[in-house]
Amino acid sequence: MKKFYSIIIILSFLSCTDLDLEPKNGLVESVAFENFEGYQSYIAKVYASLTLTGQQGAAGQPDLTIINDEGFSSYLRVWWKAQELTTDEAIIAWNDSGIRDLHNHAWGADNQFVRVLYYRIFYTISLANDFIRVAEDLPPGLSSDEIATINEYVAEARFIRAFSYWHALDHFRNIALITSITAELPTQVDPQVIFNFIESELNDIEDQLLPAGQSNHDYGRVDRAAAWMLKAKLYLNAEVYVGADRYSDCIEELNKVISSNVYSLAANYQELFMGDNHLRTDEIIWPIVHDGLVSQTWGGTTTIIRGGIGGAMSDDEKNGSPSADEAENDYGVPSGWAGYRTTSALVNKFPGAASDPNGNSADGRAIFFTEGQSLEIADVGEFTHGWAVPKFNNLEASTGRRAPGVDQVSTDYPVFRLGEAYLMLAEAELQENGTVSTTTLGYLNDLRVRAYGDNSGNIAAGDVTLDWILDERARELYLEATRRTDLIRHGKFSGGGYIWPWKGGVAEGMASPGHLDIFPIPSSDLIANPNLKQNDGY
C-alpha cells in the first residue's frame, strides 16, 4: 500500500462550537494507548484530519456537525475554496448558500464556508494538542524503537499544529493560541504571538523530524524539508502577517531544501497531479495523501477533480459513441459535478492560449478544456461559461488506467514541492537584493524548460520583477491553494489594483474592500466566547 496510514480509528471525536474541541473518551485511555498501535492509529487520525471528514468511510460519524453536507467539511476542501474561489483562478456554478459570495468578495461572519474553515483548522489543532498530551506519559512495555517512533510522531503532531496555526494566521489573523485542552475560554492574542509560536515550534522540532527525503519510506509523513518549507512560507509573508521583513530568513530555509540534494523537478508537469503522483517524490516534498479504497472522502482531491468536470468533459455520447465514458477514460472518475472553472484572467497569463481553439499554449502548463466552453463568463451558474481546468485527474501516468477507487480518487495533494521552492526563492531574493542570483535564475529557467519543452521560454534576470513572479506563480501553481495568499502579499487581492471577471459580483469585475484580506471570526464563536473580538470591517 502506498500510504503511511490506513486510518485505523480506535477513538471517536466530538466537535463543539468553541475553540476547545475536545476528543471524547470513547475508550479508556489506559486501554486505547496501552500499546504502540494506539499511538500509531491516533497520529494517523491527526494526519487524516487534513482531508477526511469523519470516522466512517467517505461519510458517517462526522468530525464537525455544523454543516449539512459532510463532504463540505473536509479541511483540504474548505482551505482550497478559500484560496481559489476568492481569486481569478476559480469560479463555481454551484448555488449552495454562501459559496458564490467567495468569488463575489461578499462574505460575512455567518458564511458557512468561512465558518467551517475556522472550525476545521481548530479541530485539527485540538487533535494535535491531545496527541501531544497522551504521548507525555508512555505505558510500560514499549520497545526503545517504538518509543523513538512515538517521539517522532509527537514532533509530527507539533508540525501539523503549526501548519494549522499558519492557516489560522493567514486566513483569520486575530486568533487564540491554544496548546492544551482546557475548560477556560481562550483569549485572542496579537498576530506576532502566533507568528512567534509557529516559528519557535518549527525550530524546536526540526531535528526531531525525519531527515529530508527519508519520509518517502513512510509516504505522507512530514520531514525536515516540510518544516523548512513551512518556515519559508511564514517568512515570505511576514510583512503581511506582522509587518516585518524576513526575506533573508526565507532564503536560508529554501536553500536548506534545495541544498539537501534530495529533490529534483519531475520530468513531466502533469504527472505531479495524477492518480499515481505518489511516484513523484522527486519533486513533491509533502503531500496530503488520498486513497480511493482505504481513505475515502467527498472532499479533498475528489472534490478538486470531480468538481471541475462537466459539460462535454463527461458526455457519454461525445463524438457519437455512447460507449465512450469521457469522465472515466479522460479523468479517471465516474462522472463530474459541473462546479468550478477558471476566468479569462488566468487563461491570458499563458501566451497564445486565449486565441487557440483548444486553449493550447507554448507553455505546456496550460491545461484547459475548451470544447463547448466559452472563455468569458456571462452566467456564473452555467458550467460551460468559463474554461475548465483539468489539471488534476485520477489516471495513473504509469498505466493510463484509472487509479484505485470507485467514487473517490487516489490523487495526492502536493502541499509543498520543489517547483514552488524555486519561485519562493526568486521572490525573496528580489525583495532582499533587488535582483535574483544567477543560480536562482537557472532554477526559474529549469521550470520554463519543463513548461516549454526547450529553452524558447527562458528569461533573463532583468525579466524577473515582482509582477512577473506573481504571474509565474499563477502559471506554475494554479489550483494549488496559494493564489489568495499570493495576491494579498502583492497587494492585488482586494481593492482595485487588479480586477478579474466577477470579482465584486459583477461580470467585468470591480474593486473590493480592504478588510476582506482576512476573513471574519464566525459569529457563532463570538457568541460562544465573549473574549473574542471581531476583525475590523465585519
UniProtKB/TrEMBL annotation:
Keyword Cell division: no
A GO-annotated cellular component: cell outer membrane
Family matches, as Gene3D superfamilies: 1.25.40.390, SusD-like, Tetratricopeptide repeat domain
Record-annotated RagB/SusD domain positions: 381-538
UniProt source species: Ekhidna lutea
One family name in Pfam for this protein: SusD_RagB
Tagged with keyword Membrane: yes
Family to which this protein belongs: Belongs to the SusD family.
The entry's keywords: Cell outer membrane, Membrane, Signal
Protein name in the entry: SusD family protein
Location, primary (coarse class): membrane
